[in-house]
Amino acid sequence: MDMCMMAGSDTEFKATLATSTGNRKIELVLCPIMQNIAVILFAVNYFTWTSAVFDSQRQSVHKKLRYLLEPPVYAEVTARRGANVTLPCLLQKKPLVYKVKWTKLEPLRRGVENIVLITNGQAQKGYGLLGPRASLRRAHPLDASVRISNLELEDDGSYRCELINGIEDESVVLTLRVEGLVFPYQSANGRYKFNHQEAKEACYGQDAALATHKQLFRAWTEGLDWCNAGWLNDGTVHYPILHPRAQCGGEKLPAGIRSYGPKDKTRDYFDAFCFTSITAGYVFFIGGKLNFTEAIEVCREKGAELARVGQLYSAWHFRGLDRCDGGWLYDGSVRFPITSPRKRCGDLREPGVRSFGFPNKTLRLHGAYCYR
Ligand SMILES: *[C@@H]1O[C@H](CO)[C@@H](O)[C@H](O)[C@H]1NC(C)=O
Ligand SMILES: *[C@@H]1O[C@H](CO)[C@@H](O)[C@H](O)[C@H]1NC(C)=O
Ligand SMILES: *[C@@H]1O[C@H](CO)[C@@H](O)[C@H](O)[C@H]1NC(C)=O
User: Residues in domain Link (predicted)?
Assistant: First the structure.
Protein backbone atom coordinates (compact mmCIF):
# COMPACT_ATOMS: atom_id res chain seq x y z
CA MET A 1 0.00 0.00 0.00
CA ASP A 2 2.77 2.43 0.91
CA MET A 3 4.58 1.79 -2.31
CA CYS A 4 1.42 2.39 -4.25
CA MET A 5 0.86 5.65 -2.54
CA MET A 6 4.36 6.79 -3.32
CA ALA A 7 3.72 6.12 -6.97
CA GLY A 8 1.10 8.82 -7.06
CA SER A 9 3.19 11.94 -6.65
CA ASP A 10 0.26 14.19 -6.01
CA THR A 11 -1.81 14.76 -2.91
CA GLU A 12 -5.04 14.29 -4.82
CA PHE A 13 -4.12 10.80 -5.82
CA LYS A 14 -3.04 9.98 -2.31
CA ALA A 15 -6.28 11.30 -0.98
CA THR A 16 -8.13 8.99 -3.30
CA LEU A 17 -6.06 6.02 -2.30
CA ALA A 18 -6.17 6.81 1.35
CA THR A 19 -9.93 6.49 1.27
CA SER A 20 -9.53 2.93 0.12
CA THR A 21 -9.53 0.88 3.30
CA GLY A 22 -10.92 -2.25 1.68
CA ASN A 23 -9.48 -5.70 1.35
CA ARG A 24 -5.73 -5.60 1.58
CA LYS A 25 -5.26 -8.43 -0.86
CA ILE A 26 -7.23 -6.61 -3.50
CA GLU A 27 -5.23 -3.45 -3.03
CA LEU A 28 -1.93 -5.26 -3.48
CA VAL A 29 -3.10 -6.95 -6.65
CA LEU A 30 -4.24 -3.66 -8.08
CA CYS A 31 -1.18 -1.59 -7.31
CA PRO A 32 0.51 -1.77 -10.71
CA ILE A 33 -2.79 -0.96 -12.36
CA MET A 34 -3.33 2.02 -10.13
CA GLN A 35 -0.06 3.55 -11.18
CA ASN A 36 -1.29 3.52 -14.74
CA ILE A 37 -4.69 4.87 -14.01
CA ALA A 38 -3.17 7.68 -12.00
CA VAL A 39 -1.72 9.05 -15.18
CA ILE A 40 -5.02 8.92 -17.00
CA LEU A 41 -6.94 10.48 -14.18
CA PHE A 42 -4.61 13.41 -13.85
CA ALA A 43 -3.98 14.02 -17.48
CA VAL A 44 -7.58 13.92 -18.47
CA ASN A 45 -9.85 15.43 -15.98
CA TYR A 46 -9.76 14.53 -12.35
CA PHE A 47 -8.35 17.91 -11.38
CA THR A 48 -10.94 20.14 -12.87
CA TRP A 49 -13.91 18.35 -11.38
CA THR A 50 -12.67 18.24 -7.86
CA SER A 51 -10.56 21.37 -7.78
CA ALA A 52 -13.13 23.39 -5.87
CA VAL A 53 -12.82 21.04 -2.95
CA PHE A 54 -9.10 20.71 -3.02
CA ASP A 55 -8.33 24.39 -3.53
CA SER A 56 -9.73 25.17 -0.14
CA GLN A 57 -7.92 22.20 1.33
CA ARG A 58 -4.64 23.36 -0.10
CA GLN A 59 -4.99 26.82 1.38
CA SER A 60 -5.58 25.49 4.83
CA VAL A 61 -2.63 23.13 4.57
CA HIS A 62 -0.11 25.89 4.07
CA LYS A 63 -1.28 28.30 6.71
CA LYS A 64 -0.38 27.65 10.33
CA LEU A 65 -3.61 27.91 12.22
CA ARG A 66 -3.91 29.88 15.40
CA TYR A 67 -7.34 28.90 16.63
CA LEU A 68 -8.42 25.71 14.93
CA LEU A 69 -6.79 22.39 15.69
CA GLU A 70 -5.10 21.00 12.63
CA PRO A 71 -5.00 18.40 11.32
CA PRO A 72 -8.53 17.72 12.50
CA VAL A 73 -8.87 14.66 14.70
CA TYR A 74 -9.72 12.59 11.64
CA ALA A 75 -9.62 13.96 8.12
CA GLU A 76 -12.12 11.37 6.95
CA VAL A 77 -15.21 10.03 8.64
CA THR A 78 -16.86 6.91 7.21
CA ALA A 79 -20.34 5.66 8.05
CA ARG A 80 -23.31 3.87 6.54
CA ARG A 81 -26.65 5.36 5.63
CA GLY A 82 -28.84 5.90 8.68
CA ALA A 83 -25.91 6.32 11.09
CA ASN A 84 -25.19 9.37 13.25
CA VAL A 85 -21.75 10.84 12.62
CA THR A 86 -19.58 13.54 14.15
CA LEU A 87 -17.29 15.68 12.01
CA PRO A 88 -14.60 16.87 14.42
CA CYS A 89 -13.52 20.50 14.62
CA LEU A 90 -11.78 21.73 17.75
CA LEU A 91 -10.56 25.14 18.85
CA GLN A 92 -7.15 25.19 20.52
CA LYS A 93 -7.86 28.71 21.70
CA LYS A 94 -10.99 30.85 21.74
CA PRO A 95 -11.06 34.34 20.23
CA LEU A 96 -13.14 36.83 22.26
CA VAL A 97 -15.76 37.05 19.58
CA TYR A 98 -16.17 34.47 16.85
CA LYS A 99 -18.47 32.40 14.74
CA VAL A 100 -17.99 28.90 13.46
CA LYS A 101 -19.57 28.17 10.11
CA TRP A 102 -19.97 24.64 8.72
CA THR A 103 -20.45 24.35 4.96
CA LYS A 104 -20.77 21.42 2.62
CA LEU A 105 -18.45 21.97 -0.32
CA GLU A 106 -20.23 21.47 -3.62
CA PRO A 107 -17.71 21.16 -6.42
CA LEU A 108 -20.60 20.67 -8.82
CA ARG A 109 -22.23 23.98 -8.15
CA ARG A 110 -19.52 26.58 -8.16
CA GLY A 111 -20.26 29.78 -6.36
CA VAL A 112 -23.05 28.26 -4.31
CA GLU A 113 -22.25 28.31 -0.63
CA ASN A 114 -24.03 25.47 1.04
CA ILE A 115 -24.17 26.45 4.72
CA VAL A 116 -25.07 23.67 7.11
CA LEU A 117 -24.79 25.38 10.49
CA ILE A 118 -23.53 28.58 12.13
CA THR A 119 -22.76 29.08 15.81
CA ASN A 120 -21.38 32.01 17.80
CA GLY A 121 -20.34 29.76 20.65
CA GLN A 122 -23.70 30.07 22.37
CA ALA A 123 -26.56 29.77 19.92
CA GLN A 124 -26.59 27.63 16.79
CA LYS A 125 -28.70 27.68 13.67
CA GLY A 126 -29.04 25.06 10.97
CA TYR A 127 -29.46 25.91 7.28
CA GLY A 128 -30.56 24.23 4.09
CA LEU A 129 -31.41 20.60 3.53
CA LEU A 130 -28.92 19.33 6.08
CA GLY A 131 -29.78 21.89 8.74
CA PRO A 132 -32.53 19.91 10.48
CA ARG A 133 -30.19 16.91 10.85
CA ALA A 134 -27.15 18.94 11.97
CA SER A 135 -26.28 20.00 15.50
CA LEU A 136 -23.19 20.93 17.49
CA ARG A 137 -21.67 18.24 19.65
CA ARG A 138 -20.52 20.68 22.39
CA ALA A 139 -18.63 18.05 24.35
CA HIS A 140 -16.65 20.91 26.00
CA PRO A 141 -16.21 24.69 25.51
CA LEU A 142 -13.63 24.28 22.71
CA ASP A 143 -15.71 21.77 20.74
CA ALA A 144 -17.17 23.02 17.45
CA SER A 145 -17.70 19.54 16.00
CA VAL A 146 -20.90 19.03 14.08
CA ARG A 147 -23.14 16.00 14.35
CA ILE A 148 -25.16 14.79 11.42
CA SER A 149 -27.92 12.36 12.25
CA ASN A 150 -29.59 9.76 10.08
CA LEU A 151 -26.98 9.90 7.32
CA GLU A 152 -28.29 10.00 3.74
CA LEU A 153 -26.58 8.98 0.51
CA GLU A 154 -26.25 12.58 -0.67
CA ASP A 155 -24.42 13.61 2.53
CA ASP A 156 -21.26 12.08 1.07
CA GLY A 157 -18.69 14.78 0.33
CA SER A 158 -16.37 17.41 1.81
CA TYR A 159 -17.21 19.75 4.63
CA ARG A 160 -15.49 22.92 5.82
CA CYS A 161 -15.35 24.09 9.42
CA GLU A 162 -14.55 27.80 9.29
CA LEU A 163 -13.70 30.04 12.20
CA ILE A 164 -14.70 33.63 11.55
CA ASN A 165 -13.34 36.16 14.02
CA GLY A 166 -13.34 39.29 11.90
CA ILE A 167 -9.55 39.48 11.50
CA GLU A 168 -8.16 36.34 10.03
CA ASP A 169 -10.53 33.52 9.21
CA GLU A 170 -9.33 29.93 9.38
CA SER A 171 -10.74 26.68 8.15
CA VAL A 172 -10.22 22.93 8.04
CA VAL A 173 -11.77 20.55 5.52
CA LEU A 174 -13.01 17.05 6.30
CA THR A 175 -14.42 14.30 4.16
CA LEU A 176 -17.55 12.42 5.03
CA ARG A 177 -17.70 9.15 3.18
CA VAL A 178 -20.89 7.16 3.07
CA GLU A 179 -19.95 3.49 2.99
CA GLY A 180 -21.71 1.75 0.14
CA LEU A 181 -21.44 0.30 -3.33
CA VAL A 182 -21.86 1.30 -6.96
CA PHE A 183 -23.96 -0.62 -9.47
CA PRO A 184 -24.58 0.01 -13.16
CA TYR A 185 -28.20 0.59 -14.15
CA GLN A 186 -29.80 0.35 -17.56
CA SER A 187 -33.30 1.35 -18.68
CA ALA A 188 -35.99 -1.28 -19.35
CA ASN A 189 -36.03 0.21 -22.86
CA GLY A 190 -32.43 -0.82 -23.52
CA ARG A 191 -28.91 0.52 -23.54
CA TYR A 192 -28.14 4.26 -23.36
CA LYS A 193 -31.66 5.58 -22.81
CA PHE A 194 -31.14 8.07 -19.95
CA ASN A 195 -30.22 11.74 -20.12
CA HIS A 196 -28.63 13.07 -16.92
CA GLN A 197 -31.89 13.92 -15.15
CA GLU A 198 -33.46 10.58 -16.10
CA ALA A 199 -30.38 8.75 -14.85
CA LYS A 200 -30.69 10.59 -11.55
CA GLU A 201 -34.35 9.63 -11.25
CA ALA A 202 -33.63 6.05 -12.27
CA CYS A 203 -31.12 5.66 -9.44
CA TYR A 204 -33.48 7.34 -7.01
CA GLY A 205 -36.23 4.91 -8.04
CA GLN A 206 -33.92 2.02 -7.16
CA ASP A 207 -33.19 3.38 -3.67
CA ALA A 208 -29.87 4.86 -4.78
CA ALA A 209 -28.25 8.11 -5.96
CA LEU A 210 -26.11 8.85 -9.01
CA ALA A 211 -22.56 7.94 -8.00
CA THR A 212 -19.72 10.43 -7.64
CA HIS A 213 -16.43 10.04 -9.48
CA LYS A 214 -14.75 9.06 -6.22
CA GLN A 215 -17.33 6.37 -5.58
CA LEU A 216 -16.91 4.91 -9.05
CA PHE A 217 -13.13 4.98 -8.68
CA ARG A 218 -13.35 3.15 -5.40
CA ALA A 219 -15.81 0.61 -6.82
CA TRP A 220 -13.30 -0.05 -9.59
CA THR A 221 -10.53 -0.74 -7.05
CA GLU A 222 -12.94 -3.18 -5.41
CA GLY A 223 -13.63 -5.08 -8.62
CA LEU A 224 -16.20 -3.25 -10.75
CA ASP A 225 -15.66 -3.92 -14.45
CA TRP A 226 -18.42 -2.71 -16.74
CA CYS A 227 -18.40 -2.15 -20.45
CA ASN A 228 -21.29 0.33 -20.80
CA ALA A 229 -20.81 4.04 -20.15
CA GLY A 230 -22.92 5.66 -17.45
CA TRP A 231 -23.67 9.08 -16.02
CA LEU A 232 -22.11 10.26 -12.78
CA ASN A 233 -23.69 12.95 -10.62
CA ASP A 234 -21.35 15.67 -11.93
CA GLY A 235 -22.62 15.29 -15.51
CA THR A 236 -19.62 13.29 -16.73
CA VAL A 237 -19.75 9.86 -18.31
CA HIS A 238 -17.40 6.96 -17.58
CA TYR A 239 -17.00 3.21 -17.40
CA PRO A 240 -14.67 1.13 -15.22
CA ILE A 241 -12.48 -1.54 -16.80
CA LEU A 242 -10.33 -4.04 -14.89
CA HIS A 243 -9.74 -6.44 -17.77
CA PRO A 244 -8.94 -4.48 -20.93
CA ARG A 245 -10.52 -6.11 -23.99
CA ALA A 246 -11.09 -5.26 -27.59
CA GLN A 247 -14.84 -4.65 -27.37
CA CYS A 248 -14.47 -2.31 -24.36
CA GLY A 249 -12.26 0.49 -25.61
CA GLY A 250 -9.33 -1.69 -26.68
CA GLU A 251 -6.77 -4.03 -25.16
CA LYS A 252 -3.90 -1.57 -25.30
CA LEU A 253 -5.31 0.98 -22.90
CA PRO A 254 -4.43 0.22 -19.29
CA ALA A 255 -7.09 -0.87 -16.84
CA GLY A 256 -8.87 2.04 -15.27
CA ILE A 257 -11.80 4.39 -15.44
CA ARG A 258 -12.44 5.14 -19.10
CA SER A 259 -13.78 8.62 -19.54
CA TYR A 260 -16.08 10.34 -22.03
CA GLY A 261 -15.68 13.54 -20.01
CA PRO A 262 -18.56 15.97 -19.45
CA LYS A 263 -21.52 15.34 -21.77
CA ASP A 264 -24.63 17.30 -22.68
CA LYS A 265 -26.94 16.67 -19.75
CA THR A 266 -30.16 17.04 -21.71
CA ARG A 267 -29.24 15.72 -25.14
CA ASP A 268 -26.82 12.87 -24.51
CA TYR A 269 -28.06 9.44 -23.52
CA PHE A 270 -26.22 6.80 -21.48
CA ASP A 271 -26.77 4.29 -18.67
CA ALA A 272 -26.31 5.25 -15.02
CA PHE A 273 -23.92 4.41 -12.22
CA CYS A 274 -25.92 4.35 -9.01
CA PHE A 275 -24.64 4.41 -5.44
CA THR A 276 -26.40 2.86 -2.47
CA SER A 277 -25.65 1.92 1.11
CA ILE A 278 -27.13 -0.30 3.80
CA THR A 279 -30.91 -0.37 4.14
CA ALA A 280 -33.08 -0.35 7.24
CA GLY A 281 -35.16 -3.28 5.97
CA TYR A 282 -34.39 -6.76 4.63
CA VAL A 283 -34.64 -8.49 1.27
CA PHE A 284 -36.05 -12.03 1.14
CA PHE A 285 -36.84 -14.47 -1.65
CA ILE A 286 -40.13 -16.18 -2.38
CA GLY A 287 -39.86 -19.11 -4.78
CA GLY A 288 -42.33 -20.19 -7.40
CA LYS A 289 -43.18 -19.71 -11.03
CA LEU A 290 -44.77 -16.30 -10.93
CA ASN A 291 -45.61 -13.69 -13.49
CA PHE A 292 -44.86 -10.06 -12.57
CA THR A 293 -48.29 -9.29 -11.06
CA GLU A 294 -48.22 -12.47 -9.01
CA ALA A 295 -44.77 -11.50 -7.73
CA ILE A 296 -46.12 -8.13 -6.56
CA GLU A 297 -48.94 -9.99 -4.85
CA VAL A 298 -46.82 -12.56 -2.96
CA CYS A 299 -44.71 -9.73 -1.52
CA ARG A 300 -47.80 -7.79 -0.55
CA GLU A 301 -49.14 -10.85 1.29
CA LYS A 302 -46.01 -10.72 3.46
CA GLY A 303 -46.44 -7.02 4.17
CA ALA A 304 -43.60 -6.20 1.77
CA GLU A 305 -42.94 -4.75 -1.70
CA LEU A 306 -40.90 -6.09 -4.58
CA ALA A 307 -37.30 -5.07 -3.83
CA ARG A 308 -35.63 -2.19 -5.67
CA VAL A 309 -32.42 -2.99 -7.52
CA GLY A 310 -30.42 -0.94 -4.98
CA GLN A 311 -31.94 -2.91 -2.12
CA LEU A 312 -30.95 -6.22 -3.71
CA TYR A 313 -27.37 -4.98 -4.26
CA SER A 314 -27.29 -3.71 -0.69
CA ALA A 315 -28.48 -7.06 0.71
CA TRP A 316 -25.86 -8.83 -1.41
CA HIS A 317 -23.04 -6.50 -0.35
CA PHE A 318 -23.83 -5.83 3.32
CA ARG A 319 -25.72 -8.96 4.36
CA GLY A 320 -24.18 -11.57 2.08
CA LEU A 321 -27.44 -12.53 0.36
CA ASP A 322 -26.68 -15.49 -1.92
CA ARG A 323 -29.41 -17.12 -3.94
CA CYS A 324 -29.24 -19.08 -7.16
CA ASP A 325 -32.81 -18.25 -8.21
CA GLY A 326 -33.90 -15.42 -10.45
CA GLY A 327 -36.60 -13.23 -8.94
CA TRP A 328 -38.71 -10.31 -10.06
CA LEU A 329 -37.80 -6.85 -8.79
CA TYR A 330 -39.85 -3.65 -8.54
CA ASP A 331 -38.61 -2.28 -11.88
CA GLY A 332 -39.67 -5.41 -13.77
CA SER A 333 -36.19 -6.86 -14.07
CA VAL A 334 -35.22 -10.35 -12.93
CA ARG A 335 -31.95 -10.78 -11.00
CA PHE A 336 -30.18 -12.95 -8.44
CA PRO A 337 -27.37 -12.24 -5.95
CA ILE A 338 -24.31 -14.50 -5.71
CA THR A 339 -21.68 -14.13 -2.99
CA SER A 340 -20.00 -17.53 -3.42
CA PRO A 341 -19.70 -18.28 -7.12
CA ARG A 342 -20.33 -21.91 -8.07
CA LYS A 343 -20.67 -23.85 -11.25
CA ARG A 344 -24.38 -24.43 -11.37
CA CYS A 345 -25.23 -20.78 -10.67
CA GLY A 346 -24.48 -19.37 -14.07
CA ASP A 347 -20.89 -20.68 -14.02
CA LEU A 348 -19.65 -17.32 -12.85
CA ARG A 349 -16.20 -16.71 -11.51
CA GLU A 350 -16.85 -13.61 -9.46
CA PRO A 351 -19.47 -12.63 -6.89
CA GLY A 352 -22.11 -10.24 -8.12
CA VAL A 353 -25.74 -9.55 -8.81
CA ARG A 354 -26.71 -11.22 -12.09
CA SER A 355 -29.45 -10.02 -14.37
CA PHE A 356 -31.87 -11.66 -16.79
CA GLY A 357 -32.80 -8.20 -18.00
CA PHE A 358 -36.45 -7.22 -18.24
CA PRO A 359 -38.38 -10.33 -19.33
CA ASN A 360 -41.94 -10.31 -20.64
CA LYS A 361 -44.08 -9.72 -17.54
CA THR A 362 -46.51 -12.48 -18.50
CA LEU A 363 -43.79 -15.15 -18.26
CA ARG A 364 -44.06 -17.55 -15.35
CA LEU A 365 -40.42 -18.50 -14.86
CA HIS A 366 -39.22 -16.79 -11.69
CA GLY A 367 -39.80 -16.11 -8.01
CA ALA A 368 -39.76 -12.74 -6.26
CA TYR A 369 -37.32 -10.71 -4.19
CA CYS A 370 -39.31 -8.79 -1.60
CA TYR A 371 -38.23 -5.95 0.68
CA ARG A 372 -39.67 -5.21 4.08
C1 LIG B 1 -29.19 9.03 16.04
O2 LIG B 1 -29.54 10.08 16.92
C3 LIG B 1 -30.93 10.21 17.14
C4 LIG B 1 -31.15 11.42 18.01
O5 LIG B 1 -30.63 12.53 17.39
C6 LIG B 1 -31.48 8.95 17.78
O7 LIG B 1 -32.87 9.06 17.93
C8 LIG B 1 -31.15 7.77 16.89
O9 LIG B 1 -31.54 6.57 17.52
C10 LIG B 1 -29.67 7.70 16.59
N11 LIG B 1 -29.44 6.68 15.58
C12 LIG B 1 -28.47 5.79 15.68
C13 LIG B 1 -28.37 4.82 14.55
O14 LIG B 1 -27.67 5.77 16.59
C1 LIG C 1 -45.44 -11.00 -23.89
O2 LIG C 1 -45.92 -12.28 -24.16
C3 LIG C 1 -47.29 -12.29 -24.54
C4 LIG C 1 -47.75 -13.75 -24.62
O5 LIG C 1 -46.79 -14.56 -25.22
C6 LIG C 1 -47.47 -11.52 -25.84
O7 LIG C 1 -48.84 -11.52 -26.23
C8 LIG C 1 -46.99 -10.10 -25.66
O9 LIG C 1 -47.04 -9.39 -26.86
C10 LIG C 1 -45.57 -10.10 -25.11
N11 LIG C 1 -45.24 -8.74 -24.74
C12 LIG C 1 -44.12 -8.16 -25.12
C13 LIG C 1 -43.92 -6.76 -24.64
O14 LIG C 1 -43.28 -8.73 -25.79
C1 LIG D 1 -50.48 -13.01 -14.07
O2 LIG D 1 -51.37 -14.04 -13.85
C3 LIG D 1 -52.62 -13.65 -13.31
C4 LIG D 1 -53.43 -14.88 -13.03
O5 LIG D 1 -52.85 -15.60 -11.98
C6 LIG D 1 -53.35 -12.72 -14.27
O7 LIG D 1 -54.56 -12.25 -13.70
C8 LIG D 1 -52.43 -11.51 -14.56
O9 LIG D 1 -53.03 -10.70 -15.54
C10 LIG D 1 -51.08 -12.00 -15.03
N11 LIG D 1 -50.21 -10.84 -15.17
C12 LIG D 1 -49.41 -10.65 -16.20
C13 LIG D 1 -48.56 -9.41 -16.18
O14 LIG D 1 -49.36 -11.42 -17.11
Answer: 181-276, 279-372
How many angstroms separate the Cα of 76 from the Cα of each of 161, 210, 222?
13, 21, 19
| Best residue among 362, 363, 366 to mutate for probing ligand 3, ranked by most atoms within 8 Å of CB | 362
Residue 38, pLDDT score: 32
Rg over CA atoms, the chain: 22
CATH code for the part of the protein at 76-178: 2.60.40.10
Judged by its nearest atom, the ligand closest to the C-alpha of residue 278 is 1
Question: Distance, CA 359 to ligand 2 centroid (Å)?
Answer: 10
pLDDT value, residue 106: 82
**Closest atom, ligand 2, to C-alpha of 361:** 1
Query: Which residue's CA is the closest to the ligand 1 atom numbered 4?
Result: 149
What is the predicted pLDDT for the residue at 63?
65
Whether residue 80 has its Cβ less than 6 Å from ligand 1:
no
Low-confidence ranges of the chain (pLDDT < 50): 1-58, 60
Q: Whose CA is nearest to atom 8 of ligand 3?
A: 293
Q: Are 160 and 70 in contact (CB under 8 A)?
A: no
Same topology for domains 181-276 and 283-371, yes or no?
A: yes
Q: Hey, where are the domains in the chain?
A: 3-50, 76-178, 181-276, 283-371
The per-residue pLDDT for range 276-327, each reduced to its tens digit, is: 999 999 999 999 999 999 999 999 999 999 999 999 999 999 999 999 999 9
CATH topology for the 283-371 domain: Mannose-Binding Protein A; Chain A (3.10.100)
> Which pLDDT does position 26 carry in this prediction?
25
The answer, yes or no, to whether any atom of ligand 1 lies below 6 A from the CB of 293, is no
CATH of domain 181-276: 3.10.100.10
The DSSP-derived string for 287-352 is: EEEE-HHHHHHHHHHTT-EEPPHHHHHHHHHHH-----S-EE-TTS-EEEEESS--TTTTS-SS-E
